[in-house]
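Running this now, will post back.
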Amino acid sequence: LISGADAVEAQCKRFEVRASESGKVLFSADEDEIVIGADRLKVTGTEGAVFGHSVETPHIRAEPSQDLKLESPTRSLVMEAPRGVQVNAAAGDLKATCRKELHLQSTEGEIFLNADTIRLGNLPVGSFSSSSSSSSSSTSPSSSAPRQTIYELCVCPNGKLYLSPAGASSTCQSSSNVCLWS
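Update: finished.
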């Protein structure tokens, strides 16, 4: 053991730091692993903790009254588990935003939306024409026509959704301009 003005160095097969009262191992190091045995590990640097490879833990928690942020500034963030991944906001909202496309995919099951209200914003609106030879086109409400308040949710052959003014029977048309230009 060498104790100098600038550093403390030790050369040994195993180094341990124990709690004075309980004798519990708080820190140990050998050639194969480093173990931190404290009940709580706190990293106080502004950049947080940086790991060169994988991290394995059963629990990650933020300080009380603090947000938890998992971030990958230049690449993707992957969470995977063989028995499922659960994201739960017990007392608040859950918000998912992205710059490009948001994919919800279930390869063997279903996607189940369960809420009192489900809203789909910014859907294009097609116009209904009773003539079979004319096609629907995207329209904006006219000031002279009565305001349409009930719409039918329609699906193009490629899966794109659009609204069509509701009628006595279905007003969805596969030849809708919304479908042709999507």
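Residues 101 and 174 are 24 Å apart (CA to CA). More later if anyone needs it.
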